[in-house]
Here is the input.
Amino acid sequence: MSCRNINNRKVNGISVNFECIEKESLTEIFRCPVCMDILNDPMKTPCDHYYCKSCLFLLSKSADCCGLCRNPLDFSKCVPASNIIRETINKMDIRCHQQLKDFNERICTKVKELFTKDNNDIKDFCGIWTDEEDSPYNKYFNLAKEEIESTCSKVLKLGEINHHLLEECEHFELCCRYCNDYKGFRSDILEHYKVCLKNPEVKIDCPQCTESVFAVKLEEHKAKDCPEEFLLEQQ
Ligand SMILES: [Zn+2]
Ligand SMILES: [Zn+2]
Ligand SMILES: [Zn+2]
Ligand SMILES: [Zn+2]
Ligand SMILES: [Zn+2]
Here is the structure.
């Protein structure tokens, strides 16, 4: 696998990697001359050359001629590429190349998780560290490393990449849809949803009366229904 097959583009402001597994002749035609990745939101110049919309816009700010043929370049005279071009690009076969980040933060949790999966007794875990090459710790460390460093590798059409990343990729970092403060990979986010105080389905115990209430309704509960709050006010 050659490196120039790995392409990059921004989805929701996050830079993502994918590998083009289409015939080389096809990928070459649809490569942007500025970013060298497969065209994203392609535009056509009056001189019949194609660029990503954002790359063309930036190029037109810094140069007054087309980077390929030196003909005059005016962004306002460029047009969106035809539907046939867009559809051909969207139908290209790609492989998602997203990878988890924060290796050091993840490795310990992952080693522990794999260890307990096999041994179902966490109290042995602290005793498994040794310097020996084939020690149990090294075995679990290597398994964990492999899992963290693996890439998504799902094969799909380029036009499906946004949906894949936002709805199914385990290796894409998402923002919490409720609080916007939390960012994490799908498995982290699903854990976070169980405790996010902005999630309308999460319940917590009222600190005053200990009744279980929806976290987003806590203030309302305190103001209206909480018996303890009422007593506090009376004192
Ligand atoms: Zn580009
Ligand atoms: Zn040109
Ligand atoms: Zn993926
Ligand atoms: Zn949240
Ligand atoms: Zn209460």
